[in-house]
Design brief:
Keywords: DNA-binding. This is MerR family transcriptional regulator. InterPro entries: DNA-bd_dom_put_sf, MerR-type_HTH_dom, MerR_fam. It comes from Nonomuraea recticatena. The chain is mainly α and about 260 residues long. About 65% of the residues lie in helices and about 0% in strands. The protein is built from twelve helices and no strands.
Length: about 260
């Protein structure tokens, strides 16, 4: 009987595909065997053993580019190489678990975008009488702050938590949300802007500016993106914001270039 088996038989015996064996040849993981008198390559027992080793390591997550060196290594190097592969696989597993968690949080709402503390703050705002639209706008603002000034996000959350403990502040902010539906020339906007600015002047720790914003060279751009979010369809808010900023500047505070006091 002719020595060795065909590539199809070798694939079946080793638990791989013919395509995989040819791929292993291309990566020089296994030498191409001799051909018989009919021109067919014949794989012997050593080749089958090599194929099983390659298949096992590949299935364990070892990159093909590293398999040849691992198989040919002495026992100590073989063991050390597997430890290194295991470490990298563990890192990949941790990353995949984190990604799966992100997908699950996305499926449940905002948990992938905001930490639990921020979500608790939004829930508290709803309990204080802010409408669903108010909470949605606040949620979007928090997402932007976390993205644009991540180093100041926790500090900002602290400031908003303290602000919600202030009944007067809560009342003013609820009126601010209602002002979105007013006409830009509504006289109540001037009154509200003065009241909000005066409250900030009396309680400067409540100034809605994330810590670290001032230190950025593009702080004005980031501040504008944060402050004017949602104003495109709400011209009354645009005017209200401008009046508040003007009132604060007249008192010596440039809100776009101001780090809140503790």
């Amino acid at each position: 009987m002719t020595d060795g088996v065909t590539i199809g038989q070798a694939a079946a015996f080793a638990g791989v595909t013919v395509k995989a064996i040819r791929h292993y040849h291309q990566h020089r993981l296994i030498d191409e065997p001799r051909r018989d008198s009919s021109g067919y390559r014949r794989y012997g027992s050593a080749d089958l053993l090599r194929l099983v080793q390659i298949r096992t390591l590949a299935a364990a997550g070892v990159p093909l580019a590293e398999i040849g060196a691992i198989i040919d290594a002495d026992p100590d190097r073989f063991a050390a190489a597997l430890v290194d592969v295991e470490r990298r696989l563990t890192d990949r597993i941790d990353d995949l678990i984190a990604r799966r968690g992100t997908l699950r949080r996305l499926a449940s709402g905002d948990r992938a975008l905001l930490p639990d503390r921020a979500l608790a703050l939004l829930n508290r705002a709803a309990d204080l009488g802010f409408t669903p639209d108010d909470v949605t706008m606040a949620r979007e603002g928090l997402v932007l702050i976390k993205a644009l000034v991540p180093e100041g996000f926790d500090d900002y959350i602290c400031r908003i938590e303290r602000a919600l403990d202030d009944p007067r502040y809560g009342s003013l902010i609820r009126r601010m949300w209602r002002a979105a539906e007013w006409e830009p020339d509504d006289p109540r906007i001037d009154e509200l802007a003065t009241a909000i600015a005066d409250h900030f002047l009396a309680h400067r720790a409540l100034l809605p500016i994330p810590a670290g914003l001032q230190a950025r060279t593009d702080s004005a751009i980031r501040y504008s993106l944060l402050t004017h979010h949602g104003q495109e369809q709400k011209p009354a808010w645009t005017r209200l914001t401008a009046l508040i900023e003007a009132r604060l500047r007249s008192a010596g505070i440039d809100i776009a270039d101001q780090t809140p006091l503790d």
